[in-house]
C-alpha cells in the first residue's frame, strides 16, 4: 500500500462528538474529505444539522446529524447505535465534545463548576469511548481519538481553569489505559492535545475584538508565548485527525499528540 493510500478512509464510518463547531467540525470535514461517512453529534441539534448538510454537500459523503449530550449514558449509547444503524458500522470515533471553564482561584472555585466541567469533558469522553469500544471489539478493528489539551499535560497559564485541567489530565490517563486494554482487540486509542485554537471555547472572552484591554493583553501574551507566533485554527487539527483515524498510524496507540505551535517545547 502506498503511503498516501494508507491515509484514505473510504468505506470507513466515523463519529465525531461536538462536531457542530470548532475542532469537531474540522475533524468531521477532514475525515469526510478522506472518504469516510460521518455522524456529526452535538447537543446543539441545529449546529449538527447545519454541519452535516454542509459537509455532505462539500464532500459527497453520507453525513448524518445526531443530537446527544455525551455526559448522559443513554445519549452516548444511543448515538453509537444510531450511527451503526444508519451508516452500517463504526470504525473511527472522535470523543471531542467539550465545554470551557470559568477560571478562578481554587479558594473561589465552585463545586457546581467542577461538576459541570468534569461531566462533559471527562465523563463524556469515558461514555463515548465505552460505547464505541463495545461496537469495535466485536469487529476487532477501530480507532478512538480523544480530544485532550495541553492542559492535560501542563498547568494552566494563569486563568485558573481548575475543572478543565483536571478533566483533560483525566482524558490523558484514560487514553493510555484504554490503549493498553484494547490493543489486543485491534483497537487503537490516542489523544490530541491542542493548545490555543480559535474556536468559541478556545478564545471565548479573549476574542481580539473584545474591547477589554486586560483580556486583549492575555490574547496577545498567548500569541507571543507560542513559538509559531499565532493562535491555532481548527484546520490545524485536520491532518493529525486523518492520520490517527487511518491505517497510516497503524502502529500508534496510547500516545498524546500535541498540536500546539510549539507551546510545550518552551
Ligand atoms: P472547541 O472546538 O474548541 O471544543 P467549540 O465550542 O467550538 O469549541 O465546540 C465544542 C462543541 O461541542 C460545540 O458544538 C458544543 O455544542 C459541543 N458540546 C459541548 N458539550 C457537549 C455535550 N455535553 N454533548 C454534546 N456536544 C457538546
From TrEMBL:
<dbReference type="GO" id="GO:0016616">
    <property type="term" value="F:oxidoreductase activity, acting on the CH-OH group of donors, NAD or NADP as acceptor"/>
</dbReference>
<protein>
    <submittedName>
        <fullName>Putative enzyme</fullName>
        <ecNumber>1.-.-.-</ecNumber>
    </submittedName>
</protein>
<dbReference type="Pfam" id="PF13561">
    <property type="entry name" value="adh_short_C2"/>
</dbReference>
<dbReference type="InterPro" id="IPR002347">
    <property type="entry name" value="SDR_fam"/>
</dbReference>
<dbReference type="InterPro" id="IPR036291">
    <property type="entry name" value="NAD(P)-bd_dom_sf"/>
</dbReference>
<keyword id="KW-0560">Oxidoreductase</keyword>
<dbReference type="GO" id="GO:0008206">
    <property type="term" value="P:bile acid metabolic process"/>
</dbReference>
<comment type="similarity">
    <text>Belongs to the short-chain dehydrogenases/reductases (SDR) family.</text>
</comment>
Amino acid at each position: 500500500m502506498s503511503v498516501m493510500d494508507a491515509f484514505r478512509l473510504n468505506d470507513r464510518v466515523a463519529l465525531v462528538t461536538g462536531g457542530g463547531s470548532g475542532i469537531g467540525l474540522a475533524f468531521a470535514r477532514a475525515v469526510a474529505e478522506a472518504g469516510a461517512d460521518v455522524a456529526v453529534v452535538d447537543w446543539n441539534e441545529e449546529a449538527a444539522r447545519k454541519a452535516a448538510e454542509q459537509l455532505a454537500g462539500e464532500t459527497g459523503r453520507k453525513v448524518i446529524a445526531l443530537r446527544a449530550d455525551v455526559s448522559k449514558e443513554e445519549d452516548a449509547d444511543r448515538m453509537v447505535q444510531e450511527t451503526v444503524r444508519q451508516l452500517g458500522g463504526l470504525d473511527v470515533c472522535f470523543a471531542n465534545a467539550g465545554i470551557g471553564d470559568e477560571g478562578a482561584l481554587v479558594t473561589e472555585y465552585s463545586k457546581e463548576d467542577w461538576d459541570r466541567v468534569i461531566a462533559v469533558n471527562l465523563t463524556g469522553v469515558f461514555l463515548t469511548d465505552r460505547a464505541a469500544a463495545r461496537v469495535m471489539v466485536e469487529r476487532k478493528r477501530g480507532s478512538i481519538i480523544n480530544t485532550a489539551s495541553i492542559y492535560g499535560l501542563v498547568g494552566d497559564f494563569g486563568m485558573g481553569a481548575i475543572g478543565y485541567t483536571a478533566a483533560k489530565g483525566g482524558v490523558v490517563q484514560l487514553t493510555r489505559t484504554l490503549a493498553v486494554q484494547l490493543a489486543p482487540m485491534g483497537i487503537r486509542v490516542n489523544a490530541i492535545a491542542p493548545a490555543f485554537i480559535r474556536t468559541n471555547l478556545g478564545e471565548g472572552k479573549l476574542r481580539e475584538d473584545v474591547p477589554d484591554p486586560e483580556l486583549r493583553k492575555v490574547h496577545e501574551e498567548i500569541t507571543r508565548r507560542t513559538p509559531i507566533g499565532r493562535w491555532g485554527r481548527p484546520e490545524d487539527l485536520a491532518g493529525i485527525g486523518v492520520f490517527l483515524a487511518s491505517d497510516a498510524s497503524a502502529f500508534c496507540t496510547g500516545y498524546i499528540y500535541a498540536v500546539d505551535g510549539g507551546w510545550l517545547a518552551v
